[in-house]
Design goal:
The complex is a heterodimer of chains A (about 180) and B (about 220). Chain A is an all-alpha fold and about 180 residues long. Chain A is built from 8 helices and no strands. Chain A has helices at about 5-10, 15-35, 40-55, 65-85, 105-120, 125-135, 140-145, 150-170. In chain B, about 35% of the residues lie in helices and about 30% in strands. Chain B is built from 6 helices and 9 strands, in the order ααααααβββββββββ. Chain B starts with a helix and ends with a strand. Classes of the chains: A mainly alpha (about 180), B alpha+beta (about 220).
Amino acid sequence: MDESLLDELRAAPSEACFTEIFNLNRRAVLTRCRRMLGDPSAAEDLAQETFAVAFAKLHLFRGGVFSNWILQIARNRCINYLRASLRTPEAPLADDTPSGLTGDSADDLVLSGQVSAVLRRLPPEQRVALKLFYADGYNYKEIARFLGCPEKRVKSHLQNGRKHFRSIWEETEGGSR
Amino acid sequence: MSTDAGRRLAGALRTLRRAAGDCPSSEALERYAIGESPGPESQQIREHIAGCGVCDWVVEKARDFDHAAESRSGSLAAWFRRPALGYALAALLAYPAYLGISGWRAGIHRTPAAAAPAGLLPALVLDANPVRGAARSAARLPREPDSVVLLSVVLPARPGAAYDLAVLDGSGKEVASRRGLAGNGGEFTVALPRRLLRAGEYTLRVEGDGQRFQFPFTLSE
């Protein structure tokens, strides 16, 4: 971005100056917010909040590429938004796992490591849905809001995730246990 | 998947979740997502993410953020018609007044209407800095329903901690809130639509990291 444009904005803001800076960056900010949040309406709000914060904190911009700075603000606000969109689980779920899997023995830790390796091979939506549902106890509605998708799709992610997990598990060493 | 296998998967996921411990800060996750974490931090976050679905997703999406292909986002005119754009416009207008706050100590600022470029919305900047010493800040609300009020405060915030901010009316009812704010150098700024506010007593409450700060202020029509 033209440094003189920023200097102009700092010294004497005008609609023309604002519009030019806004035009140069709005598409990049909005597209990324949409991509990150999934929810178009939340993305619009976050994108606009990004501009509000950026202009309010313009004095903190220390030079460099302005678009990178404003995108950093947008990304940070999206991260905070995502993290704040789920309640904190009230308590760890009780472990009702059969087959002696208590979660504490060396065997269980080995098994968990194998599970973790298989999980990494799942698509992110399936992997995250499984973790949120089974490990944290979130319900379909909460997971849907967090992932930015309909509840039906969460059910689908869970169903496909279990199938996919089993398929990979049986192909690997874990399946031979 | 058999019921038993499903329960074993659930048990393993809970084991991983317990091992994951507390979530890292937003800033640490962001550094990890863009590949700027120092080695030990990177390893810790990788291990945490193995068990934590929330942070796993945040990192995935933060990476998506940088790889998003830009698409057309509609005309500028269409965006300008969205009421929320007032936030950004107001922030621009508020900016000179914002800078004019001498060390954040000058209290309430109203952007001079005469200085407002045509077509932009007026804004109110309320500096609720607690070290100022005033018992209660006070300000007159902008008349324009689409205008915004910017609330700002500087707190002894801990880097990396997340804070929740709420505006409560005189009866203690929450008018607006923002969750998970990271105090950038202890500085918090939120933009509120004017339409959410009426004349009366308010309290700006900031909670986080085991601390609570409250700043009373009065708004008049």
